[in-house]
Design goal:
Length: 474
């Protein structure tokens, strides 16, 4: 053990630990969960990137000597690359970002000292004086939040692009598979399976555009605002240079928040951003749920689609294996929706000049990105490639729909169409057979009007109505 000191006194810290006295105090005082900061390395890495950029800035403005600045930056990069065994065993429910910022300051300082002298405490680098120079938790953490959210959106965007591509491929593959359309779980008019899958792709392309727009706006920095956005404690020249260095570290342009006070108080940005994540998860949820319903069976369900399961050794019913995969997608999307409440309540708990006093919202965002990424992977790699169709069954059900009498209603009016529909239901025959039985049109005309291959394309139906407009009596 080593003895460290702060304004509250002295405390022993394990010799192996790169964290220091503030982290140890937080660890002892807030031990209410096994979930700790180190379970979210992306947040730690974001703060370490800020420390590297700030060290460069403080060197440039002459506030930090070259030896210390280079050691701090090297230590920060080693944290980012996980090149040594650091830990931050502070409970995630500790509260705001102060323990994270203080903990990274300690880890970087002790490693920087070790780089200089081989000893964690022998290099003269202090966590607050040098690593945290011209910074505070209140400008570091909102900036780290922006970095994390930017990266988490990328985690979602890339597999989303792959899922959209796979949906388009399957849409093309099943473009000629005609099936029953359903509204309110009741028989509607025919549609192709390809049209349904392409519709999901179109909706997800909308989400992709929104998420890419969101990502482009998570490039802000609050650095230089220090405690409340007024800049007190910020050294001359720091604010004007730090974001250039941070941009270099991150590999994309970072800009100062227009109003630094607002930047520290803002809670609406993450709420709105996660709303777009929830919107995508709702589409993924619906896709999984609809495929599961279409695959219901094997004897008493819809059985429109099925899945070619390669290794169902432990499944009495091979299709149950695929159904469980879809269920896992649905469950993951449910978690994303639940995370929205965590974000909302966590952000609302900020008081006065601090936007949030909880790390739960960012934890929820990270969890949502992870869940959604894996859900989309299951769909792209496991479910959609193995999807097969009972084409004849789909066609038979599509031809039996009494909603196909819409074609008759359009020509003769609602009452005649209803008459055909009622006869089809009463005698358990197809609408085509009912129309022929009522002799409302020549058989060859009825055959063409009820050919389901014509009923899934607007231009085909318009051509039919134009062709038989002389029969129209309204």
């Amino acid at each position: 053990m080593r003895l460290e000191h702060d304004s509250l006194g002295s405390l022993e810290v394990p010799n192996f630990a790169y964290y220091g006295i503030q982290t140890e105090r937080n660890r002892q005082a807030f031990d209410i969960s096994d979930l700790t900061l180190e379970d979210f390395p992306s947040f730690i890495e974001a703060v370490a990137k800020i420390k590297a950029a700030c060290a460069r800035t403080n060197l440039e403005i002459g506030a930090l000597d070259k030896e210390k600045a280079q050691a701090i930056e090297q230590a920060a990069w080693e944290v980012i690359r996980r090149e040594f065994d650091y830990s931050l065993p502070v409970c995630i429910y500790r509260g705001s970002g102060t323990p994270l910022n203080a903990g990274v300051n300690e880890v970087v300082a002790h490693r920087a000292n070790e780089i200089l002298t081989g000893n964690k405490e022998g290099g003269g680098i202090h966590p607050s004086t040098h690593v945290n120079m011209a910074q505070s938790s209140n400008d570091v953490i909102p900036t780290a939040k922006a970095i994390v959210v930017h990266d988490q959106l990328e985690i979602i965007i890339e597999p989303l692009k792959v899922l959209i591509k796979k949906l388009r491929e399957k849409g093309e593959e099943f473009s000629s598979v005609i099936k029953m359309g359903r509204t309110g779980l009741q028989d509607a008019v025919p549609i192709t399976l390809g049209q349904q899958l392409n519709a999901f792709a179109s909706g997800m392309e909308r989400s992709l555009s929104r998420l890419e727009y969101e990502k482009s706006h998570w490039n802000y920095s609050c650095l230089g605002g220090t405690a409340v956005g007024t800049g007190m404690g910020c050294l001359p020249g720091f604010r004007g240079k730090v974001n250039k260095h941070l941009s270099d570290v991150l590999g994309y342009e970072v800009k100062a928040y227009d109003d630094l006070v607002d930047g520290m108080m803002a809670i609406d940005d993450l709420i709105a951003c996660h709303g777009q994540v929830v919107a995508l998860s709702a589409q993924v949820w619906k896709l999984a749920r609809d495929l599961r319903v279409m695959a219901s069976g094997p004897n008493s369900g819809l059985r429109e689609v099925y899945f070619e399961v390669k290794n169902p050794e432990n499944a009495l019913n091979p299709q149950r294996f695929a159904s469980c995969s879809l269920e896992s997608v649905i469950t993951a999307c449910n978690q994303v929706s639940a995370n929205n409440s965590s974000i909302l309540f966590g952000l609302k708990n900020g008081w006065l000049d601090l936007g949030a006093c909880s790390s739960i919202p960012l934890r929820a965002m990270i969890n949502s990105a992870t869940m959604l990424k894996e859900a989309m992977r299951i769909l792209t790699e496991e479910v959609l490639p193995s999807m097969r169709v009972n084409s004849q069954l789909c066609q038979d059900m599509a031809e039996s729909s009494v909603s196909n009498t819409t074609m008759i209603s359009t020509i003769f009016g609602y009452e005649v169409g209803s008459q055909v529909a009622h006869l089809a239901l009463e005698e358990n025959i197809s609408p085509r057979e009912a129309a022929k039985k009522l002799k409302i049109l020549p058989d060859e005309v009825i055959d063409e009007l009820f050919d389901v291959s014509n009923l899934t394309h607007p231009e085909n139906m318009e051509a039919l109505f134009e062709k038989y407009k002389d029969f129209r009596k309204l």
